[in-house]
Amino acid sequence: MDTATAPIPVRSPLPDGLAGSTVVILGGTSGIGLAAGAMLRSVGARVVLVGRNKGRLDAAVERVGGGDQVIGETADVADLDALEGIFERAGSVDHVLVTAGVIGGPTPVTEVTRDGAWEDFQSRLWGVLATARVAASRLPVGGSITFTSGTLLMRPIPGFAGTIAAAGGVEPLSRQLAVELAPRRLRVNTVRYGVIDTPLARTVAGAGPDTEGDEKMAQAALATPLGRYGTADEAAAAAVFVMANPYVTGSILTIDGGGSLA
Ligand SMILES: NC(=O)c1ccc[n+]([C@@H]2O[C@H](COP(=O)([O-])OP(=O)(O)OC[C@H]3O[C@@H](n4cnc5c(N)ncnc54)[C@H](OP(=O)(O)O)[C@@H]3O)[C@@H](O)[C@H]2O)c1
After folding, report:
1. 34 CA distance to ligand 1 centroid (A)?
2. Where would you find the membrane-spanning parts of this chain (predicted)?
3. 101 lines ligand 1 (CB under 6 A)
């Protein structure tokens, strides 16, 4: 049977199945992406961590450890040429995780600017599309692409029109790509997160990385169904799960501690 149309081999959906594979993580220098990098390394994957800030990148590479099994690359996810270079230098890449994204302070829709909206579009929507474009022709049979979205899409709050307008395209795009890339035996999924306690969430909440910040986050989380926010590890484990399970594609997996039900 032609390898391009042969079924994806059945293998253990447990993360152990990722041993020996290479995973590019766009947004791998902080929060969920960094936790995914450490987790993937711990199950024997080679990881390529990507972020824009060199200092953060160096610290992340050191934190994940693993010598030549952890590579750091500085790039903006919206830079197509930079993405091409990362995949070229990485050699074979099996899976891609995109967690890159920033969230600014609330901006009423009446104050949204073209530049601000364009920036959101570039990083949140073009970035994932560009990643898919580069990855689609390079990933092997059984490879996967995992995107990130948030429960703000389902339960909007005032002030994030620009972010939602851009990020709202990610879930339909992943379903579209799951269909388009299935004949290549590639899988595409999105993990949709509720509040996960990361530097990004703390910035939004106005909480620092210190004990005072811990208390502020813990207090705010008491109103959630499980009484706390998710950890970066819990969030990363979901991304690693969809990556590792050869029968998962076209899925939007919600990891929000039941927050969408409250
Ligand atoms: N934490 C939550 O509660 C939550 C909830 C729902 C959805 N999400 C989404 O989940 C994703 C990860 O969030 P997080 O909480 O882990 O955030 P985080 O801790 O701030 O990490 C974001 C990562 O993305 C990188 N990044 C940002 N913009 C980039 C760009 N244009 N190109 C390349 N890298 C870029 C950052 O590094 P540099 O800044 O150095 O580039 C960093 O490594 C984000 O898209 C976020 O919107 C998070």
Report:
1. 10
2. none
3. yes
CATH class of 15-194+235-252: alpha beta
Residue having the nearest C-alpha atom to atom 46 of ligand 1:
101
* Sign of the alpha-carbon dihedral angle for 63, 69, 72, 78: negative
Q: Is there a contact between 150 and 230 (Cβ–Cβ < 8 Å)? A: no
Atom 12 of ligand 1 has which residue's CA nearest to it? 99
CB 27 less than 6 A from any atom of ligand 1: yes
CB 256 within 8 A of CB 192: yes
Give 136-151 pLDDT, tens digit per residue: 999 999 999 999 999 9
pLDDT at 120: 93
Q: Is the CB of 76 under 6 A from ligand 1?
A: yes
Sequence ranges of the domains in the chain: 15-194+235-252, 199-229
> Is residue 39 classed as helix, strand or coil in its secondary structure?
helix
Q: Give the integer Cα–Cα distance in Å for 190 and 180.
A: 15
Which stretch of DSSP H or E encloses residue 119?
helix 114-120
